[in-house]
Each structure stands twice: as structure tokens, then as C-alpha cells.
Amino acid sequence: MADRMQWANALSTRPSLEAAVTDVVQRAVSTLTAPADLGLVFISSAFASEYSRVLPLLAEQLSVPVMIGCSGGGVIGTAASGQTQELEAEAALSLTLAHLPGVNLQVFHVLGEELPDLDSPPDTWINLIGVPPSPTPHFILLSSAFSSGINDLLQGLDFAYPGSVILGGQASVGGMGGRLALFCNGSLHREGTVGLALSGNIVLEPIVAQGCRPIGEPLQVTKAERNIILELDEKVPLVVLRDLIASLSEKERALAQHSLFVGVAMDEFKLSLQQGDFLIRSILGVDPSGGAIAIGDLVRPGQRLQFHLRDSQASAEELEFLLERYQTKPEFDNSAVGALMFSCVGRGEGLYGKPNFDSELFKRYIQDVPVGGFFCGGEIGPVGGRTFLHGYTSVFGICRELSVED
């Protein structure tokens, strides 16, 4: 019998860290029929005072060559009942183990001040990361919430590793303003980015649900400066926006007061734009006198954008739309063996009014797959072929072996 890829996950809510570690190790190991090559551990900020004990406790009971992880505002994993749970406000530990035959694993830890200049050639980035560009690696990144260099790192990796899928999240400290933890093999880090490169017999397929739906029609930026839109369709942006809001229903107008965003079209040549084609960015402010609008990203003339609204219904419908679209891809063959979930602390029960919403919807489409992850302070995933740091987003990474079609 051929050696096949295997994934397992276990989630524990034992209040003692020793008991939680024993619980997740025993359950995850018992699910695998071959040795684990990779471990991913996510721990809730309720254990903040004990982060330094996590890796030593795991090492006492588990021998795995590569281990990464971080702290989160909450963690996601498989409870003893077999249900995937998203636990946001309690002590919890999630351990994913994977047996990955034919997959090369490399870990790295980089600090913001170590990053090359964005004008540097690809080799400078490749030398820093220590990962060859061929065969094409896929990356899982876990970053400090205060990592000033994360946007530069994403841009550099996209440049140096074309075709790579890059996803992950920023470690979050929960509501207490405590410390965060990044785990990389035997080391505990407090800042920078911990990365894992996977190459060889593995496919990592991303789903990036930004939680918004478009309103109105796509518009063209006709004048802009840095992140400030000065003209839309040769009109004053604020006037265009006011006319749009006036055309909305009463419920949508109320929503626009606090949940209005801009979606920037990522494909300049795509005629018919739909959900998933936009990079969602915040509106930072408006100039009441000149009518300009500032957004949370650089913008240039010629780009198309569309205003968006965000609420629980839009968020649910968008994730469902993306999962349906994933299932209808020609290469979809239901061969996924594991999944990772990086969800914003602003989603979860606070958004939907009930727990486990995103993970249950995911499992309805991608069944019998262990899911592990955490609630992030920012989510990393691709939109339109480039990698970005997001907010209010759920990013899924679906793992499977290479197939003939790949």
C-alpha cells in the first residue's frame, strides 16, 4: 500500500496546560497510522503566562521534526466529540499533526529589520528565507501583531516565489493586552514572523472570505494620489458615494454608517466582476470640502473599485459562494486531507451571534477533513494572485497530495 498523506487535529479545553498537552498529543497521535512530520500548535491567550512551557511540554510527549505555532485570541480544532469548534474566550489548545510523505519542510524566523529593500533582486529574498524557489514552495506564515515589516515580507515573497500560495495570520493577544508567542521548532519568539515552506508532493489551496458584498456598480479611479481617491468616473468621490447611499434601502443605509468598505478590483481586464475579485480595504476618512476619500491602501488612476457592505449575512453568503465556486473547479476531486483556518477576532460569535459558524459552513462543503487554526489579529491570504494582510477575514488553506491534473 502506498504511503499516503495524513492529517489529524485535537482540541483541548483542559484548564491545566499539562493536562491539555497530554490530551491533544494522545488524541492526535492515535489518529495517525504513521509518524508525524509536522506539528502546528495554537494556544489561546488565556495561557499567556505559560507560553514558555508549551514547547518543552510537547517535546516530553511528542517527537516531531518540524513544529510551528502561535498564540491567538481563540483557537480552532477538533473536540473529543469529533466536532470542529471555534473557542474564543476560554483556555484552549489546538494541535495539528501531519504525515507528509514526499514533502520537504523548511522553517524560518525573520525580523522586520532584516528584510531586504523592496528594490532588491529575488535572490536577496531567497537567501534570507533559505528556501529554493523550485519546486514551488507554499508558505504558512505566523507573524507578530506588531510586525512592521509584514506587508514588505508578503510583497517580497510574491516577487521571489511566483506561483507560491502564502497564507497565515498574525498572532493575537486577546483582550487583556498581554504578550504574544510565536513557536518555531524549539524556540519561543515574541516578534517577527515564523514561516513554514512546504514543497514537493503537496497542494495548498486557499479560500479567502473577506466578509463583504458589493453595492452599486464598479467605478473607475480617474484621479488619485497615494491612498487618496480624488476622482471617480471623473466625478467628486464623496458626491458619488452620497448618491449611492441615497439609493440604498433603509437597512443598508444604516449599515453603511459603520460597515462601509471599498473593494479594489484585482484583475484590470476582467469585464464581469463578482465576489472574490476584490481586495477589501477600509475607508480611512473623507474630505468634506474637496470630496476626496482616503482608503487603507495605495490606489492609482485606471483602477476599478466598488463600494461594499459588511454584515453577518454578507459574510455568510460570501463564504458559501467561495466554497461553492471551489467545488465547481475542474480539478476539484474531494481529495483534501487537512485544512487550516485563520479567522479574524472580529468574526466568530461576535459577528454571527452563534459559535462555530465559519467552520461548520466549511465542513458542509469540505467534509471529513480535520481543521485546525486560530483567531488572528490580521489574516494573510491571496486575492487576485497577490498576497495581502486582511482584516475581518477567514482564510482557509486546504491541503492535499499532488494529482495527475496538477
In words, what does this structure look like?
The two termini are 22 Å apart. The protein has helices at residues 17-31, 51-61, 122-129, 150-160, 237-246, 250-256, 312-327, 348-352, 357-365; strands spanning 6-12, 38-44, 66-72, 75-78, 84-87, 93-99, 103-110, 138-143, 166-170, 182-184, 187-189, 193-200, 203-209, 212-214, 219-225, 228-232, 260-265, 278-286, 293-295, 304-310, 338-344, 371-376, 379-383, 386-390, 394-400. The strands form four sheets. The chain has a six-stranded mixed β-sheet with strand order 1-6-2-3-10-11, with helices on one face. A six-stranded mixed β-sheet has the order 5-4-22-21-25-13, with helices on one face. The protein is of the alpha+beta class and 406 residues long. The protein is globular and about 65 Å long. It is a multi-pass membrane protein. Keywords: Cell membrane, Membrane, Transmembrane, Transmembrane helix. It comes from Trichormus variabilis (strain ATCC 29413 / PCC 7937) (Anabaena variabilis).
Poorly predicted runs of 5 or more residues: none
Mean pLDDT: 94
Radius of gyration: 21 Å
Number of strand segments: 25
Tally of alpha and pi helices:
9
Give the CA-based shape: globular
Percentage of residues in DSSP E strands: 35-45%
Task: Describe the oligomeric state of these chains in a short phrase.
Answer: single chain
**Helix content estimate:** 10-25%
Strand order of the largest sheet: 1-6-2-3-10-11
Summarize the main sheet: 6 strands, mixed
Number of structural units classed as domains: 2
Q: Which class do the helix and strand fractions yield?
A: alpha+beta
Distance between the termini: 22 Å
Domain FIST: 35-236
InterPro entries: FIST_C, FIST_domain_N, UCP018953
Protein name: FIST C-domain domain-containing protein
Organism: Trichormus variabilis (strain ATCC 29413 / PCC 7937)
